[in-house]
Amino acid sequence: MSRRLLIAACSAIYVFLMLPLAVVFPISLSSAPYMQFPPPGFSTRWYDRFFEDPQWIEATVRSLYVGGATALLALALGVPLAFSLARGRFAGRVLLDRLALAPLIVPTIILSVGLYGLFAKLKMIGEWYGLVVAHTVLALPFVVLVMVAGLRDFDRGLEQAAEGLGASRVRTLLRVTLPLLRPSLVSAGLLAFISSFDELVIALFLAGPNMTLPKKMFDNILMEIDPTIAAVSVMQILLVSIVLVLIGRFGRGLRDSAR
Amino acid sequence: MVGFTPSVGDYAATSPEDGGGEDFMKTRGFLPALPALILLFAFFLFPVVRMLGFSVEAGTLDWYAKALGEQLYLQVFWNTFEIAVFVTAICLLLGYPLGFLIATTTPGWATLGFIFVLLPLWTSVLVRTYAWMVLLGRNGVFNRWLIDVGAIADPLPLLHNLSGVLIGMVHVLLPYMVLPVYGAVRRLDPALVAAAQGLGASNWRIFWRIYLPLTLPGIFAGSVIVFVLSLGFFITPALLGGGKVMMVAVLIEQEVHQTLNWPLAAALSAVLLALTLGVYGLAQAAARQEARP
Asked: Which domains does chain A have, with CATH numbers?
């Protein structure tokens, strides 16, 4: 009996969680020029408007390559860092661990304002690589958490076997350790990409006149709400779904990285 | 991914037996961390400390006196604190049953349950905020529907006020409560539940006497992370609050972008940072205390 009550309550909570995601689909295909629900008719004009507007396209492309570069840089820095944290024995390891995860806890607005001041001085406002560096700071904790979890479950016997058979340390790393960690690497990279692709607060301060997709969306929501933003939302939800499927298929299980 | 940040003590479990490749990690294990460390110093610690320094540039604590003494700013801090408490309480109320259900159902349902928690988590906060505007606005879906069925005559004010901010923030932060609760329920030894059932305990009794006390660490971890993240929230209050619900992060943004008052923004940031790290540090210390045998 009480189990049924629990399931009923949770169904209602799931409706709450999914409703905002579901509602943008019909609105994006509406023929009405302003928000109207239920939509009076079917049309793809808001998708057309997105693809015909160079500003939207430019913002999307910028977010894609900033996200891609962020994922690469976060992996390049975060994976060795995770090795240090998981396997190194040195003084200050606890401190390093705290520092690496601090960007999750420190309010992003504080980091944004700090970087805004610094980048203004360095003339880096509006430069895409400035965004990449800032987004990498935010993405680093995700990479560290996923990779450390991967290393924790790693069977060291396989490395010892490789070295026992005469493989050099570098060869063992490249041919045994990293391939075995591939699921974690995939998850870490995709999470870093998504965290940058969705990021607004940093971009609000550092992007300058060059829009990223979230900043363009923010401005649009503030100025004029037309269903173009619903079309963008639908595409973004689809992109995230694809990424989650990729993580589920090729990455380390979502449940493991959720620990 | 969320919940309490694992401490190095957790990794020590990986502590490997001695092997060929071990010498390097043992003696120079910090070297691989250096590039990341440089990045964190140059683009995280340094800019934040530099900015916070603006608050005492004049050599006095005047800006702190202003940030903590003037009614206007105190009110914003109080609002922020209140909202964080509300959001944490609502997240706990909704997140516990959800995490509990996912942890105790069949693997197939659990996967599905996870997908529908993670999909919103990784969907852009902007998309979700926009969707809530569509749902909660004066001419939004809810108000239309309520008027159509005759429940109300005039649209309810759901947006641009506290209720809108709370709904939006709970939606963003709920997954951060679900995941630690799920973990805590999973870690619980099922034999305890089986034993209680065998001795004839009712479901409610099993919940109150076994599940709830043994999952308290998960509840605590989830509550702390939701509360701490609430304190620094920006996007949701900025868009759903409609300028009527002021939180510290929104105030800081205004001081930098509109008023250009850097010293005040720095002082407000310093107070926000102290609150955030203070709450987080205290909670971690308490959790460690509790874990001690």
From this structure: 55-208+245-257 (1.10.3720.10)
